[in-house]
Structures are given as structure tokens and as C-alpha cells.
Amino acid sequence: MKPAVTIRQIARESGVSVSTVSRVINGSAPVSEDVRRRVERAIEKYAYAPSGFARGLVSRRSMIIGVIMPDITNPYFTAMFREISLAAQRAGYSVLLFNTGFSAATAGETTRNELEAFKVMQEKGADGVLVVGGQADLVRLRPEYRRGLEDMANRVPVVALGNPVDGSRCQFMERERGQGIYMAVEHLFSLGHRRIAFVGGETDVAITERRLGAYGDALAALGLPYDRNLVSTSDYYAPDGWRAADRLIRQGTAFTAVMAMNDGVALGAYRALADHGLRVPEDVSVISCDQFFDADYFTPRLTALNQHNELLGQAVISALLARMRGDAQSRPLKPRPELVVRESCRRIS
Amino acid sequence: MKPAVTIRQIARESGVSVSTVSRVINGSAPVSEDVRRRVERAIEKYAYAPSGFARGLVSRRSMIIGVIMPDITNPYFTAMFREISLAAQRAGYSVLLFNTGFSAATAGETTRNELEAFKVMQEKGADGVLVVGGQADLVRLRPEYRRGLEDMANRVPVVALGNPVDGSRCQFMERERGQGIYMAVEHLFSLGHRRIAFVGGETDVAITERRLGAYGDALAALGLPYDRNLVSTSDYYAPDGWRAADRLIRQGTAFTAVMAMNDGVALGAYRALADHGLRVPEDVSVISCDQFFDADYFTPRLTALNQHNELLGQAVISALLARMRGDAQSRPLKPRPELVVRESCRRIS
DNA sequence: CTATACCGTGAAAACGTTTTCACAACAATT
DNA sequence: AATTGTTGTGAAAACGTTTTCACGGTATAG
Fold first, then answer.
1. Signed CA dihedral, B98, B99, B104, B108: sign only
2. Do A115 and A223 fall into the same domain?
3. Whether the model pTM is above 0.85
4. B270 touching A, CB under 8 A?
5. How far is A221 from chain B (nearest CA, A)?
6. Chain B residues closer than 8 Å to A281 by CB
7. Which residues form the domain of B231?
8. Does a structural domain hold residue B341?
């Protein structure tokens, strides 16, 4: 591999000092038109790019934003990441993505990865860090995690999407408070459903608990009893939806509608219902609490709550950028969930 | 924000020289047991992490691997990225992900993003770069792109997953040569299908062209004519599958089977067929050429080619790591496609 | 007992930038 | 005509590490 070209060579080539080249690159001070052209030509010629190392060392900025996520494979995170990445790039930042593999079930082993992520962000000198989900969205944090998060937040702006922690130095944003769940339950209720199952999601995870709470509240508001047996948690993907719905059916719980954590879970539920000879929506109505990409292409088309995750991604990254600029805490826009009625729910007598 | 702790403070705190602290951190030379303990305690106490900037400046290594992808939202890339990220982390590297937004349709505008990505990787001092898809997988590269790629490959090990370019300094790996397509066509043929449509994918993209080529070859080998009207390209997602299949039906082309570019496209095709009152598999058989996550949960369960994209991801990252170590070019394992027969194809008379 | 090897340590150079300071040239203001 | 301000430039310090060199001490070999 070729040795890298340095600013000194550019300076020599264009017959000016190193400082002047730096000024051309950064526009940090006026430079005569003639000199600017000569320098730019040299830069072009050698395909010179300034060393981020040297730059960061003195300017103390890396132009890197760190993103810590549990599983990029989850369409929810993928969608958010896309928005984050786009906005960061637009603002001139690059994105260091750390995929921790965290899941509530394996919190014991995967906490180490999250702590590792914190350390990496510190080492690489990230100018700001986004923590999305993972242990930050757990109902109870482990003390090591809590400490690691604070250590990091002490040195660099951190925005976390998760379950708010009192007195933390990092800014917590909440994914949602379960407003959509009300809409979904009401929708099903208005169609005559009284036995509504809740399928998918992991217990101990804040977002799941919040939705379950909202589900319970909504039932109560409508005068319906809360039946433990109607709740079947598991995880966030199709196989989990299948497992959760299958369990529900096998255990003989009666229900006429299913609220699935998200489209993936709903797909699994569709499948489990079909496997037991139940038709959607003729026998059972299905609704997804969090629409990803393909709800409109399912058969039947899936009625779903659009939580506007892209907007959430945008909100999170712009909160971070604002924080990095030192702006006052702007009230971030909270996306309003929207019920998109399609074909998977039907009125019953 | 607090000022960062430096190695000097750790040295002072533990009563040794800076060099010794460095040796403890890197294990680059023997250090007495006693000293090591003192230093480690100090590091722990101050939550010290060495500055990557300073480190990189002198050692010329960033411990960063750059990944350039067109669209992380595409499950195919997501799956690969996951493997890449995991393997990189295991080897002690962090991953800088640049999402270019490239698509063949907008090559004109998005080429700029890809060039920008190359520059970023150079600036951040990536120790190795992975270029996955994007313009690298186009049948014909733009000269600026070609030059940017070579400039980068001259300075840092680069592995590209795409369409091989002669005389390039970067190592090209091919996604597949269309072997699976033969299996799929033969499978359909053996079930009695003679009018097999090909749906999805973008023209000018190498992977699509290769699959189309294999599709043509397979037909020829079986003595079937190639009918242009049976091919309906579009893009890689469900809406594209819908559009492509819908177009096919509307234009009145007769067919009894559909080969979809991937699961997403297949889902769209399912939907389009249903919209026209056609049942799968009773009226039309459907097969996916690239299984993502959920094929087994579709209704009907989707017969698909498993291209083992996770293995491909692993192969790509390990090729890069080998290259970075300067190892001889190991023949990378090429995943063998596997036909997974489920319920979406049926024998016809 | 002397020569040789190795172990543990510190001092200092080097990495490639940005930034501060200094200053010359010239323009604008008194 | 003297002062002040502005513009364009270069020299040199600083950033926080790793690495090279040197050296004293102790173990090992002859």
C-alpha cells in the first residue's frame, strides 16, 4: 500500500506553508484566490484527504456519531437507522454502528457487549452517541450498565431511546406511551370484539410493558376484564409470533382478535391461525401495533398502527445534533400513531 | 463535558512513566506484576480509554472497518451486515457504515454519495473497506467511480461484492453465478410448468443480469423458448413485486409459475395474483430466488432458494480480514444455494 | 569471575494536523 | 502624515499516543 500523502507535500507542491493549506481546506481564514487555486489543484492531483487522526487530535472532534443498537436485523431498528444515517451524513458526520446483539433474554451475557460499545465510542472519540433500545429500554438497568452509560454521558452528548432514568446525564427519549394501543383496542371493540389477545414482545422491556399497560387501561376504560391468559409474549419476529399465537390456541383460550406487537409477529400469527384452520379475518381479526414495510402486501392486507418510526429516527438524531451544538433542549416532536385500516379486521355479531 | 483523561495522568497516578502505561495497555512488552496492577487500578479508577486519534496517528491503524452499502433497509444487506459487524467486532474492529442510497435508477445522483463514502473511509483511516453492491454491482461502472475505487484500493485493502473488474486493485467477490436459478427452473419444469415468468430485480445490475442469464440458459437447456414478455423487472421490494406481477397479468402474458427475485418481491407477487383472483399455488406457482427471513411464515409457505447470505457475509468479511493481515488470497468459500421446497409450487398437468 | 543475554523501565522522537502568534503589506481613517 | 485596521501569510506549539533507543540490574553461560 502507498504511503499516505500529507499536508506537507501538498504545501510543498503548491509553494505555500502548511498553515495556508489548512486554511484552504477548512476555510478557517481568508486566502488569496490565486493560492487557493494552486492548493486545490495539488489536492486534486494527489487525491489528498486530511488525516482524521491528526485532525481529531488537535481539534477534538471526530465528525463521527456513534449508534448503539441491539439488532440491526430488526426492521424497526433498520428503519430508524436509515433516517439516522441520512441525517448524520447530511450534517457532515459519519456513523459508527455497534450492533450489540442484546436481548432481554440474554441480558446477562450481552451486557458486556453494550459496555464494550460505550468504550469503543469513547476511544474513537465519537462527537455524540445514540443509544437505541437494548438495555436502555429495560424496565430495570443493571448497575454496571447504568454506570457505563453515565461515564459516557459525562464526556460526550448522549441521547438514549428507551426507558427514562432519573438524574441521568443523558437525554432520554421515549418511543411512545402506548397511545396507539388505545386506538387499536377501540377499533376492535367497535367491531364487536370482546376477547382481544395480545401477542409478542418481551416482558421486562419498557416498550412492551408500556403497551401492555395501555392495553390493560384501554380494556378497563371499555369495561372489559383483563385476562392474563390472553397475553402471550415471546419476542419480536415472525417465529415468535407463531409461537405465541400457537401457544394461545393450544391452551384453549377463547379470543376473536389478536393484537400483534408488529408486522413480523402478525405474520407469524397469521401462519399459526392458518395452521389451526382459522381464517383471517373471518374467524379471527388481526391488527399490528407497529407497521414496518409490507403490511399492505400481506394477504389479507394487515390493519396496523403506523407509529411513524422514520419520524422517530429523525427526532432522535436531530435531538442529538441539537445537543451537540449545545442548543437548548428543544421539545422533540413525538410522532402521533395512526391507525391504518385494511382488511384483517372484521365486524362480528 | 469533562476533559478527557490522558495517559500521562494515569502514569502520574501510578508512579510510572508513560511508556510503561502504554506497555500495560497493549501488552507490547513485559511489565512487572506489581506495576501492572497499579496501572490497571488507575485506569479503572478514571475510566480511562486511550485516544484513538493519538493511537492511530502513530500506529497507523484505526481498528475501524468501513462498510459501504446502498440501502441497509434491504433485508439482504441487513443480513450480510449483521454477519460482517459480528465478525469485525470479534476481531477487535469497529464498523463505520456508510449508507449511500444508491440505486441503479438514480445512479446519476447517487454516485456522488459513493465517492463521498470513499473519501470518508480514507479520512477516518479505515484499516479495510468492504464495498457491498451499489455501483460495484453494475454491469458498467462510471469512470469517476472506477477511479475513486482504485484510489482507495491503492491505500487500503478493499474487498468488493459485485461485478468483477479486470485489473482492479480491489478484490472482487461474486455474489453468485446463478446456479440456484437452474435448480429453481428445473424444479418448476419437473412439476410440469412450461411458461415461467421472472419477476423483480433491476436491469443493468449484475446480479439481476446474471440471474436472468441463468434463467435463459436453464430454459434453453430444457428446450423451452425464451419469451421476453415473461420477464418483468422493477426493483427489490414488495411494491416492486406487486407492480411487476400486475404488469405481467395486465399485459395478458400466459404463465403458470413466477420466479421472484426475493421474498419481498414474492410477497408483492402473491398480492398481485390475489388481486386478480389467482390463487397460489392452485392457479400459479411462486418461487423466490433469494430467501430472507420469513418465507416459512408466508401463506402459503414460500418455496425458495436459500442463497445463504449469512455465509456470504461471513465470507466477505473474512476475505477482508485475511487481506488486511496480508494473507495469501485464500479461495473463499462460495455458499451453495439450496432449494427449500415448501407449499407455493404445485404440479400441473 | 567475566562475558553475555534478557528483563523492566524511562526519555524522547515521531505521527499529521489545527491553532495561536507574529508580522508584513496595504487600505482606511483621523 | 500618523494611526489604526484588515488581509494574507509563515513559524512553531500543541494534541496523546506508540515506538525506538538507551541503560541499569539480574540471571545464565563459559
1. negative
2. no
3. yes
4. yes
5. 35
6. none
7. 179-307
8. no
